[in-house]
User: Fold this.
Amino acid sequence: MTNSEKSACGIAYPDDLALLKRIYDRICQERGIRADTAEA
Assistant:
């Protein structure tokens, strides 16, 4: 069985990074945190 959350080669693909960025931005927006602050 393989771990589907981590790529076997350890490389992050652009689509993965884009998804993480969208999630990060949404969480910051929901919590009223500006992305360019230390709190983010």
Q: What stands out?
A: Residues 4 and 10 are 12 Å apart (CA to CA).
